[in-house]
């Protein structure tokens, strides 16, 4: 039997109270949760909880996920500049555009020793807001061209990693350029082995010429990579990539977002500017900040998505950019052809098409598996032209790719699409109030991808600097709504995800980081609990309290998915016969939940994950930050079920996930 009822029982209360949720007495709500075990039921797609990889925002790719350490490696920042580069010793650095390395990289750096040097001289780069130096191997490379009169004493350059003034060198290598032909570009690379970590990230990468050298020396694409995730060449930063992987994301939406659209039409994401050798990638002005090198191009992005086991949601450019200009209807065809080339490049067999062959030529013979393509971004701001852009793209693409689900970015001004992407940036109360939103939308289509959502403020209109516990709790209520409506919801994802805290245009973000620290925000931890504990079918469940019966619970009423301040969903992994119960409380007091699993006499040991603030903590101000990254963490407890029953206490303002073998 269930334990007797203690304390107060909450009835139908939806009052949400912030501030001092301190439980000073034993005031415990008691709820009975009845779960029907079954092996059939509404399917939950594996894409349910995903992430967005919006390039450029908060320097999330260049200066973030992309492992390249060198800032402004090809002198493209700030309208072509030497920004980030400093000379040392003797000599000077200037920009030069004489006979550049490639048409994509039209300027280079010229280092000039106009008199024979007497000290070690050269240039250095402090990275994107610092360089983390750890015991490992770094791979450095550059393109180099000496002038006819150039002379290097001994014929060797030294490259390395040091502190700012070079008094402490953590690792160095020599590069023999003696045989480099004059007036011609050659590339060189070397491994820099580091054995001791630097305490600070105030470090530089340097290129040094020995004393007694002289002349003009040109450089471009000066690059330095640490070890990368899965050891990929031109790959991604291990700690940030691992944070993505640990979310167990079902999908990754890429490459944006606003950065897909670009500041202007010519500055849109152009897929074939992001492939092939780096010297052939021109990059483009960033939508949010700085310059996009596009070193992390379409192949690298999709490879990363594959490496973390997720399904890509490929966003394609749909003829609208952020200067609010749309491609006129009679000029759309080249843009449609561009997308067809892009999807062919990504998905066509290598031996059956020109684009597939190009992909193979670039080192990737297997096609990528693309199930979802989103046409455009947030065209609810451009409905008057989406009315012709969507049909033009969708008609052409859906005929050619019958197995792909195409996602529209608004349903206004177009006929009902197969799927639509909803975006919600809101205070916590919105997500709580809209728990049942997706119970009341048309079925069977459009299906819904909640491609961006997050709690952006507490009560006023000021953006939060970091996600809070209250936000994570509210988002989790919305996520329970996604799972319960998995017949129409493809999945949802918090946005934005990446934030270099030294280059921020938008807060809050799921994964703030600096050169050597990655923060798992409250919202991250909540999403991780959902992503890592995903059922493949929904189980029927009802909650009651002392004055209700399970028979009296109506669909869409109290007890169905929600009872008072408690929100819940039950699901199952049929392959491992595991029950998953997700519970979210916005109550000030503990909630004692007595669970009965119908048609199961399971007596087993399970795990309960809890994200909560603890006594006396205001959930609306509790955050993991770059200064206090572990203010809140997931607590794991063991639980025991006997004869299909178990009891758990759900703390105030918390997210709880139970995982129990049946
Ligand atoms: C919650 O607990 C407080 C004491 O901490 C008590 O005053 C209050 O009545 C309780 N609220 C409910 C709705 O039970
Ligand atoms: C409140 O009472 C219940 C039932 O006796 C007990 O299980 C629980 O631990 C108590 N909670 C607190 C906070 O004292
Ligand atoms: C869930 O409940 C509904 C409505 O009562 C019922 O039609 C359905 O068969 C149940 N599904 C399972 C898997 O028990
Ligand atoms: C050489 O360059 C230095 C700056 O590095 C400059 O001060 C000096 O005037 C130059 N000398 C000649 C002869 O151009
Ligand atoms: C670093 O490189 C050196 C020489 O290239 C090699 O011997 C060593 O095993 C490498 N160390 C690591 C950690 O990869
Ligand atoms: C341009 O570069 C070429 C190749 O290095 C060189 O021969 C030529 O002198 C340079 N011209 C100028 C104006 O520097
Ligand atoms: C030089 O560049 C070419 C083309 O990008 C590349 O294939 C080669 O590996 C590079 N060599 C070195 C030593 O970096
Ligand atoms: C990556 O390379 C490092 C150093 O060479 C090695 O220790 C590690 O096992 C490699 N990892 C993978 C996944 O191949
Ligand atoms: C990119 O592809 C478009 C057609 O999709 C083509 O017109 C353009 O020349 C290509 N650009 C490059 C750099 O190959
Ligand atoms: C669509 O999927 C079916 C079933 O997997 C497959 O046979 C067919 O070749 C696919 N069509 C295209 C155009 O990829």
TrEMBL record:
InterPro entries for the chain: Alpha-L-AF_C, ASD1_cat, GH, Glyco_hydro_b, Glycosyl_Hydrolase_51
The keyword Glycoprotein appears for this protein: yes
Signal peptide segment: 1-19
Keyword annotations from UniProtKB, A to Z: Glycoprotein, Hydrolase, Signal
Enzyme Commission number(s): 3.2.1.55
Domain of life: Eukaryota
GO molecular function list: alpha-L-arabinofuranosidase activity
Catalytic EC class: hydrolase
Reactions catalysed, as given in the entry: Hydrolysis of terminal non-reducing alpha-L-arabinofuranoside residues in alpha-L-arabinosides
SUPFAM superfamilies: (Trans)glycosidases
Gene3D superfamilies: Glycosidases, Golgi alpha-mannosidase II
Alpha-L-arabinofuranosidase C-terminal domain ranges (all copies): 451-654
Pfam families with a match to the protein in the record: Alpha-L-AF_C (PF06964), ASD1_dom (PF22848)
Keyword check for Glycoprotein: yes
Gene Ontology biological process: L-arabinose metabolic process
Family named by the database record: Belongs to the glycosyl hydrolase 51 family.
Name listed for the protein in its UniProt record: non-reducing end alpha-L-arabinofuranosidase
């Amino acid at each position: 039997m269930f334990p007797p009822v203690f304390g107060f029982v909450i009835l139908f209360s939806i009052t949400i109270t912030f501030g001092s949720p301190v439980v000073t007495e034993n005031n415990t709500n008691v709820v009975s949760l009845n779960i029907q075990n079954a092996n059939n039921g509404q399917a939950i797609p594996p894409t349910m909880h995903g992430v967005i990889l919006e390039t450029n925002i908060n320097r999330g790719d260049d200066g973030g996920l992309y492992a390249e350490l060198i800032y402004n490696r090809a002198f493209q920042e700030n309208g072509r500049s030497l920004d980030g580069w400093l000379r040392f010793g003797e000599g000077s650095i200037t920009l030069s555009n004489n006979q550049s390395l490639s048409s994509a990289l039209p300027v280079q750096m010229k280092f000039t020793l106009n008199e024979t040097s007497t000290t070690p001289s050269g240039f250095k780069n402090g990275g994107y807001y610092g360089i983390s130096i750890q015991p490992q191997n770094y791979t450095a490379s550059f393109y180099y061209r000496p002038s006819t009169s150039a002379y290097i004493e001994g014929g060797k350059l030294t490259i390395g990693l040091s502190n700012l003034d070079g008094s402490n060198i953590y690792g160095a290598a020599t590069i023999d350029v003696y045989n480099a032909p004059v007036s011609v570009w050659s590339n060189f690379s070397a491994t820099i082995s580091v054995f001791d970590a630097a305490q600070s990230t105030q470090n530089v990468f340097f290129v040094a010429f020995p004393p007694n050298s002289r002349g003009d020396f040109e450089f471009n694409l000066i690059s330095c990579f640490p070890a990368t995730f899965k050891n990929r060449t031109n790959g991604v930063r291990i700690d940030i990539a691992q944070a993505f992987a640990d979310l167990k994301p079902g999908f990754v939406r890429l490459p944006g977002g606003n950065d897909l659209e670009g500041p202007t039409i010519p500055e849109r994401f152009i897929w074939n500017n992001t492939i092939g050798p780096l010297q052939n990638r021109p990059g483009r002005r960033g939508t949010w900040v700085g310059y996009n090198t596009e070193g992390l191009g379409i192949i690298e992005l999709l490879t990363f998505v594959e490496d973390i086991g997720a399904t890509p949601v490929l966003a394609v450019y749909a003829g609208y950019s952020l200067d609010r200009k749309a491609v006129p209807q009679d000029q759309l065809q080249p843009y449609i052809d561009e997308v067809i080339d892009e999807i062919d490049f990504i998905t066509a067999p290598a031996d059956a098409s020109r684009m597939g062959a190009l992909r193979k030529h670039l080192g990737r013979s297997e096609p990528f598996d693309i199930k979802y393509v989103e046409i455009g971004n947030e065209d609810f701001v451009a409905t008057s032209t989406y009315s012709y852009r969507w049909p033009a793209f969708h008609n052409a693409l859906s005929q050619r790719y019958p197995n792909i689900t195409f996602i529209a970015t608004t349903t206004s001004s177009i006929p009902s699409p197969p799927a639509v992407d909803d975006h919600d940036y809101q205070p916590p109360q919105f997500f709580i109030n809209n728990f049942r939103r997706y119970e009341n939308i048309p079925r069977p289509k459009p299906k819904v991808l909640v491609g961006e959502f997050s709690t952006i403020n507490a009560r006023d209109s000021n953006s939060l600097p970091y996600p809070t516990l209250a936000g994570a709790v509210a988002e989790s209520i919305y996520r329970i709504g996604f799972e319960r409506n998995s017949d129409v919801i493809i999945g949802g994802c918090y946005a934005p995800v990446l934030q270099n805290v030294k280059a921020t245009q938008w807060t809050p973000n799921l994964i703030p980081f600096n050169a050597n620290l990655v923060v798992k925000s409250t919202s991250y931890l909540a999403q991780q609990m959902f992503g890592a504990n995903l059922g493949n079918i929904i189980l029927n469940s009802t909650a009651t309290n002392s004055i209700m019966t399970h028979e009296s619970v109506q669909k869409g009423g109290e007890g169905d998915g929600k009872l008072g301040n408690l929100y819940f969903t039950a699901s199952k992994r049929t392959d491992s016969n595991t029950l998953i119960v997700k519970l979210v409380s916005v109550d000030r007091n503990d909630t004692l939940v007595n669970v009965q699993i119908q048609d199961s006499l399971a007596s087993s040991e399970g795990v309960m994950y809890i994200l909560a603030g603890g006594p006396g903590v205001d959930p609306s101000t509790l955050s993991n930050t770059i200064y206090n990254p572990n203010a809140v963490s997931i607590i794991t407890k063991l639980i025991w079920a006997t004869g299909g029953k178990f009891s758990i206490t759900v703390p105030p303002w918390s997210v709880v996930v139970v995982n129990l073998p049946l």
